[in-house]
Design brief:
388 residues, mainly beta, Methylamine Dehydrogenase, Chain H, 5-stranded mixed beta sheet, 4-stranded antiparallel beta sheet, 1 helix, 2% helix, globular
């Protein structure tokens, strides 16, 4: 996928969860599982996963797909497509509850703020819709296309804040209730991924090859780290470390306290577009070398590689510290063993899969370039039921 960010560059094994809190069992309120964007789910997968339904939101003929990650709350899915549809679907059936149509694309994930669902659009607006009805409550205009997703922060006073980046080179913090701008921070190039939140700090990168650390409340810069290559997706943050996969053909770990690079990995000269997933022991990164790489978190050393037949632009999810799920541009949705990188299950969608998976309890969701959202049901557990 030659993203506009790329064109701009041309032109210019422990079952212990990380400290970051994962989403509640039947919800997936953050696209990467939590505000720190570690890509973790507590759901234990049982194979085979079974296709429950698929719903078309995009346009297969025009190659307008679903690359946004769905978010889920209270049995309802919220996701947009490149054709300009943003919809609320029933989790069990996939039937449309409501839909809005805009004249541009939705490529980033939405976020929940009370009764609102908030999302950025390619028409340069951030929209807040009533999550129940789809009625537009407010909109905020930036000066550039919005490709990245939303993140939500709860301030110490309990008020909700919206974080979103734009192709006007700015990261915005908005009041979630009113859409009023509280602060913005200007970089020197496009911001393509969502911003991560860790201990009242916001960490993000973009097309200028710089990792930024800001005070969440004020938007003031606390650290600026030169990565040296642009980042097309979100950064992962945990325990004071930022994990970055970038277009310089590397995956790297940085301390955002002192800015030191702790390690760097890259064996092949192919870029990384997908964001990594991180738990206490592993960093899992999908690359455009058609591989998913399992790295030791502390040293960045490769433990295994899993090969597909297409670029891996789908950001992986680690499920119950046992399996990794992701899509590939070869048209398959995969599940592999976390400890060994061995295939456990796959499903042929038949179109490139760039969307990151969402895991809402026993429902696993993913979008594809054919314009559809696919919902899989977790397989039945082989663990015997307790005796009565």
């Amino acid at each position: 996928m030659n993203h506009p960010c790329f064109l701009s560059f041309i032109l210019a094994l422990s079952p212990v969860l990380c400290d970051a809190q994962v989403s509640p069992t039947q919800d997936w309120t953050f696209a990467r599982g939590n505000a720190a964007m570690t890509g973790l789910s507590s759901t234990a997968l049982n194979f085979p996963l079974e296709l429950a339904w698929s719903t078309e939101l995009g346009n297969k003929t025009k190659r307008e797909g679903v690359i946004a990650t769905p978010v889920v709350r209270a049995g309802k899915i919220y996701v947009g497509s490149q054709t300009g549809n943003f919809a609320c679907l029933d989790l069990i059936t996939g039937k449309e509850i409501w839909k809005v149509e805009k004249k541009s694309f939705f490529e980033g994930n939405a976020g929940f703020a009370g009764d609102l669902i908030i999302v950025g659009c390619g028409d340069a607006f951030v929209y807040a819709f009533d999550a129940s009805t789809g009625k537009e409550v407010w909109k905020f205009e930036t000066q550039g296309e919005i490709h990245g997703g939303v993140n939500i922060w709860t301030a110490p006073d309990g008020k909700l804040r919206v974080l979103i980046g734009s192709y006007d080179n700015k990261l915005y913090c908005l009041d979630a209730v009113t859409g009023v701008k509280l602060w913005d921070y200007e970089t020197t190039n496009y911001i393509n991924g969502a911003a991560a939140i860790y201990e009242n700090q916001v960490i993000f990168g973009g097309c200028d090859g710089t990792l930024y650390v800001l005070d969440m409340a004020t938007g003031k810069e606390t650290k600026k780290i030169e990565v040296g290559a642009y980042m097309g997706n979100n950064v992962v943050t945990d325990k004071g470390v930022a994990y970055v996969a970038h277009y310089g053909n590397r995956v790297a770990a940085f301390s955002f306290g002192d800015g030191a690079r702790l390690w760097e990995y890259g064996e092949r000269e192919f870029p990384y577009y997908a964001a990594p997933a991180v738990n206490d022991q592993w960093v899992i990164a999908g690359g455009r070398d058609k591989r998913v790489h399992g790295l030791d978190r502390s040293k960045g050393e490769a433990k295994w590689q899993f090969r597909t037949k297409g670029d891996v632009d789908s950001s992986p999810i680690i499920c119950a510290n046992a399996h990794v799920i992701f899509g590939s541009n070869d048209g398959y949705f995969y599940a592999i063993d976390l400890s060994k990188g061995e295939e456990k299950w796959r499903y042929e969608i038949g179109a490139p899969v760039k969307s990151a998976p969402a895991v809402a309890g026993d429902f696993i969701l993913i979008g594809a370039d054919d314009g559809s959202v696919y919902c899989f049901k977790n397989g039945k557990s082989n663990i015997p039921a307790p005796a009565k």
